[in-house]
Amino acid sequence: MTEHAESGSTEGPLPVFPLDRRKCPLSVPQEYENMRAGEPVAKVVNRMTGKPAWALTRYADVRDVLGDPAMSSNARNPGYPHQFQVPEEMLPYIAFPFAAMDPPEHTVRRRMVIPEFTAKRIADLRPRTQAIVDARIDAMLAGGGPLDLVAELAVPVPSLQFCELMGADPEHIGYFRRYAETTTGRDSSLEAVAGAIAEMDEFLDELITEKTREPGDDLLSRIAAKLPEEPTLEHDDLVAIARLLVIAGSDTTANVISLGTVVLLEHPEQLAEIRNDPSLLPGAIEELLRFLSILDSATVRVATRDIELAGGETIRDGEGILALNGAANWDPAQYPEPHRFDIHRAVEGHMAFSYGNHMCPGANLARMQLEVVFRTLFTRIPGLRLAAPVDELPYMFDAHAYGLHELPVTW
What is the 3-state secondary structure (H, E, C) of 78-113? Predict the structure, then answer.
């Protein structure tokens, strides 16, 4: 049953968001299906802030809202559905990431990082990704099972590559991970999040200062070199850009690796097809991204004008919106039988990386890392299997980025 809270109006109790996946851990929250059928544009209330927003569960509505420039990402706008309780008087002083900005501020910052994720740059990174994955699997085979795939493979691969991209020392992997866990945890207090941000900003401030003084062949050095070309940006803006990359560059990919391994092992016939025909792997990864939708409630907007959706519902100027990409990815009007994992599905247009001008700039890096990990893992350890029942695995029900705390496997 969906948890409810009092709305404080004649509307009655509202569903409390974000929802979790305890009823079926390898699916998006099952309540989305009921909402889509009965109230696809539903007023809900945030668990942390107690403030209302509109939750969208139809693919068409989510796509329309994310593609509409009048639907603002600016976290300082009144009505913006913050994930944490943020006092209004603090809003002018918070260094929000560019994901929480609108053009032209968003455009300037995004332009700084886009060249780091071109097709050529990703192709150049593939050999190093392969080397990192091979080294981790060498260690796994040497140690033998059972072991925790999260600790041995899922976290180290994207985290180590992220450190190298940033020009940071690999010893900071655990530091980045703790920051990601604190800032994406649903139960983290505002004080804990603020403390984690301040600590990370201090670290990144020193790292960027070092890269400015002695540049190297890394992402931070290159974006720091562009700062004189962007008169609207300052050193602190680079710190905020780098802070966003900490989450985008490691935590989410690690979660798809761990959960994706479970899904593939739970569908052995399709995994066998991939082994026999590796050309199926890119399509399988897109289906995994759709199926898992690990950031299903992270895409938020606030309306800056009245908008009427395709079903006739109206969202008013100043009202917050949860554009549920997980619900969109499981909308049967777009993806028939969405609960069925199918590596042959035509899955173009899924919302796992969002949509519109805020689409994840690192999407192709994540795709490449996932392809190298899954191809190598299931080739080199063909007998890989779970060492615990699926329904007993420690899922991250308490995190905004869904995943696994641990994944015991053996072979």
Answer: CCCCCCCCCCHHHHHHCCCCHHHCCCCHHHHHHHHH
Strand-pairing partners, residue 302, are 72, 320
* Domain enclosing residue 183, as ranges: 4-410
Query: Phi and psi of 278, rounded to 5°?
Result: -60, -20
Q: Sort residue 354 into left (φ over 0), alpha (ψ -120 to 50) or beta.
A: left
Distance between CA atoms of residues 404 and 395, nearest Å: 4
DSSP states of 159-220 as a string?
HHHHHHHHT--GGGHHHHHHHHHHHHBTT--HHHHHHHHHHHHHHHHHHHHHHHHS--SSHH
Q: Residue 336: is the preceding peptide bond cis (ω within 30°)?
A: no
Nearest residue to 146 via CA among 366, 411, 410: 410
Segment 274-300 shows an average pLDDT of 95
Q: Return the number of other C-beta atoms located less than 10 Å from residue 166's C-beta.
A: 22
Q: What is the DSSP letter of 254?
A: H
Tokens found for residue 160: 């180590």
Number of structural domains, the chain?
Answer: 1
Residue 46 backbone dihedrals phi, psi, to 5 degrees: -75, 135
The pLDDT, as a whole number, for residue 187 is 66
Tell me the pLDDT tens digit for each residue of 208-241.
999 999 999 999 999 999 999 888 888 988 988 8
Q: How far apart are CA 379 and CA 388, in angstroms?
A: 22
User: Where residue 55 sits, what CATH number does that domain have?
Assistant: 1.10.630.10
User: Tokens at residue 277, please?
Assistant: 């025909």
Q: Which two tokens stand for residue 375?
A: 């191809």
pLDDT digits (tens, 9 = 90+) for 59-81: 999 999 999 999 999 999 989 99
Backbone angles phi, psi at 183, to 5 degrees: -80, -15
Amino acid letter, residue 217: D
* pTM listed for this prediction: 0.92
Sign, CA dihedral 185-189-193-196, equals negative
Reported as a single tens digit per residue, the pLDDT across 255-278 is 999 999 999 999 999 999 999 999
Number of residues that make up the chain: 411
